[in-house]
Design goal:
By secondary structure, the chain is α/β, with parallel strands linked by helices. It contains ten helices and nine strands. It has a single domain, classed as HAD superfamily/HAD-like (Rossmann fold), CATH 3.40.50. Strand 3, helix 6 and strand 4 form a beta-alpha-beta unit. The chain is globular and about 45 Å long.
Amino acid sequence: MGRRRDRQASDAEFEALDPSSLAASGIADGVAARDAGAAAAAAADTEGPVTPSVPPDLTAAAFFDVDNTMMMGASIFHFARGLAARNFFSGADLRGFVWQQLKFRLGGEGTPEDIRQHREAALSFVAGRQVSELVELGEEIYDELMADRIWEGTRSLAQMHLDAGQRVWLVTATPLELAGIIARRLGLTGALGTVAEHEDGVYTGRLVGELLHGPAKAHAVRALAAREGLDLRRCSAYSDSINDAPMLSVVGTAVAVNPDAELRALARRKGWEIRDFRSGRKVARIGVPSVLGAGAVAGAVAAGAAYRRRG
């Protein structure tokens, strides 16, 4: 944990870290992948189980988005709620963070200044904190606020691939450490996530490369496929968002899960399979901050605090 993680690679070269650099939590240190300076991603290998009686399928794999695909709502928001409940930062800090998330998720990438502000907001609350501390808290918060929000239908799809001897990765803009926790708890192979820079085991508040979002996910999947010898024509990808159309388009089998309106329309045009595990068609984005105003954020903080008082 004592070295600066800033390794980067192109789609043609995806460098692996020395196994001795594995964190005590079992989450691999960041492996960065960059495409034309536009994307940054990392792989956290969790060594998920493969059914012993099934021979491994070495050239096929599955890639799952997290927010609203594998989990109800936004994983980073659930994590922030848990941190706020532990007085990790103030309610005002959380409101500022969620506002930046709203602008980014609902308004797209926006201007370079918007992207800069979003990057700063996304990491400001971890700057100066120990990586080990955040990983430990992430484990606790997963149990408290995330475990019950996993879509069983999507989890079953992931298990289907594992049972076929295939590897399964999460691909998400969520920070790598949190993405790795979710992947490990679900018994998956690992995760590709946004890489937060840290030095001597302490977060600097800067990113390695860019957020793993939009086209960056496709770049990261291609890089991983090159490293692992995967045939993308035999791979599958699952997402709820039109933002992940690039990732869905690079694999042989694309599945829209709990899709937003734009992705549903695109899936119909392209003949992609659609799976919707939400109860009722009126549900737009369960738990995602698209419905959050200042009052809802304050309510989330209060709910988190109340949860801690009950514990």
